């Protein structure tokens, strides 16, 4: 069935009651979904414009929020005359964003982006009055983009990526999504492949800038804590990072059959979503593994000697986990999730094993494979085989670690390339705003 823009606008209003049911359902595991409904449904006021020109940055969840950090820092430094509005769609994104607000609490405001209903986005733009809007990565809403165009707000899709799977989905609703993509003043893509897909959906003025995730500076205190932890260990650390639903049971079964390997390295498994920490603990123990929880230990001496795997059940410590790891298997790639962020462990110099599903980071992973920083396998069992190889032949692990560091440094600089383009748009937007005020 063909969906027209007018049909989408009608459905977006009629479907709002379903959004409340969705929030209640999500709140069973994450009570934070019960909060701030006044923002989600535009029942209350949004952060009003302060008199300064305003940069609005939308980062839907944790990954996009973390990716926004180097861009946000550059905006604060380059444009001291502005304030920043930071919006999200998930509680974990908002929690991560609160740490960014702390960088400049007098200049950064935070709220949820309302659902994509016409009355809600109209109220959002009327009250917040952004001078320019920057959407991180993939979050494109038709009514939002239509209202931005009506209000004359230049919109930028930054660090933009579009997998083949996402493009195929968007093409089914091209009458709606085409005008939305075409409404961006500029699209700053991560790769040539992303550029081609975005242009096929109607995107204009698409420039390849790379990924700002290569410019993220790891948390220095967490890195120091990881170095101190490793100094007291007599064996390497093997990290299974950012696992998704269905992957933990596969890794648990694989680890349970390799008790000798679990003695040769200290294994850590870190789930992607905090609401699943308890579930993953039960999965690991149910496979017969002895599990120690990160939330219950402060130093290596707290880890019982018979521990098979440490469960990383803490939020905001990915810099610690990546700096701790001598080798990493990346979650999200062993089920059909397209992989999680392989750049973080690469920045820490950890060689990486990925599974078959890599569509979210296809270009980065292909380049990492070519550089010798990554290895691709089919199953968790094969990932453990690679870990064992790196333990058996340490020089291959050292070589892959050096390749990971070199690879990540080679791709740095996307923030600067984006800011060069944003600077032109910012100056033009301010001039336009001054003429209409």
Automatic annotation (TrEMBL):
Keyword Membrane listed: yes
Reactions catalysed according to its record: lipid IVA (E. coli) + CMP-3-deoxy-beta-D-manno-octulosonate = alpha-Kdo-(2->6)-lipid IVA (E. coli) + CMP + H(+)
Segments forming domain 3-deoxy-D-manno-octulosonic-acid transferase N-terminal: 37-216
Transmembrane segments: none
Positions marked as site (Transition state stabilizer): 137, 213
Compartments reported by the entry: Cell membrane
Active site positions: 64
UniProt record similarity statement: Belongs to the glycosyltransferase group 1 family.
Protein name (record): 3-deoxy-D-manno-octulosonic acid transferase
Organism: Sutterella wadsworthensis 2_1_59BFAA
């Amino acid at each position: 069935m063909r969906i027209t823009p007018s049909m989408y606008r009608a459905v977006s209003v009629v479907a709002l009651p379903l959004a409340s049911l969705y929030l209640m359902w999500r709140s069973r595991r994450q009570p934070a979904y019960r909060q701030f409904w006044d923002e989600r449904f535009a029942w209350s006021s949004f952060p009003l414009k302060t008199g300064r020109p305003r940069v609005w940055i939308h980062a839907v969840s944790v990954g996009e929020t973390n990716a926004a950090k180097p861009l946000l820092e550059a905006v604060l430094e380059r444009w001291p005359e502005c304030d920043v509005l930071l919006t999200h769609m998930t509680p974990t994104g908002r929690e991560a964003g609160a740490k960014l607000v702390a960088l400049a609490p007098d200049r950064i405001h935070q709220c949820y982006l309302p659902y994509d209903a016409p009355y809600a986005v109209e109220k959002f733009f009327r009250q917040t009055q952004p001078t320019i809007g920057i959407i991180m990565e993939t979050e494109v809403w038709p009514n939002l983009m239509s209202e931005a165009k009506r209000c004359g707000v230049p919109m930028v899709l930054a660090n933009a990526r579009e997998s083949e799977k996402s493009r195929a989905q968007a093409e089914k609703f091209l009458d709606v999504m085409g005008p939305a993509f075409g409404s961006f003043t500029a699209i700053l893509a991560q790769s040539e492949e992303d550029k081609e897909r975005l242009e096929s959906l109607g995107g204009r003025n698409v420039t390849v800038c790379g990924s700002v995730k290569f410019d993220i500076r790891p948390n220095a205190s967490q890195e120091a804590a990881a170095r101190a932890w490793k100094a007291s260990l007599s064996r390497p650390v093997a990290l299974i990072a950012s696992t998704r639903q269905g992957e933990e049971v596969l890794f648990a079964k694989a680890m349970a059959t390799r008790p000798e390997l679990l003695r040769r390295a200290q294994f850590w498994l870190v789930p992607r979503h905090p609401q699943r920490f308890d579930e993953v603990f039960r999965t690991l123990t149910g496979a017969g593994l002895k599990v120690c929880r990160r939330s219950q230990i402060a130093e290596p001496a707290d880890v019982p000697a018979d521990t098979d795997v440490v469960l990383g059940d803490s939020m905001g410590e990915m810099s610690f986990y990546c700096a701790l790891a001598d080798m990493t298997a990346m979650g999200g790639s062993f089920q059909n999730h397209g992989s999680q962020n392989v750049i973080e462990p690469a920045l820490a110099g950890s060689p990486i094993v990925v599974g078959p599903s890599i569509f979210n980071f296809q270009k980065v992973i292909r380049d990492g494979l070519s550089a010798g920083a990554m290895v691709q396998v089919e199953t968790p069992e094969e990932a453990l085989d690679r870990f064992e190889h790196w333990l058996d032949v340490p020089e291959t692990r050292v070589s892959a670690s050096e390749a990971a560091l070199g690879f990540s440094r080679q791709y740095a600089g996307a923030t600067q390339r984006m800011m060069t383009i944003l600077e032109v748009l910012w100056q033009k937007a301010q001039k336009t705003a001054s003429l209409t005020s």
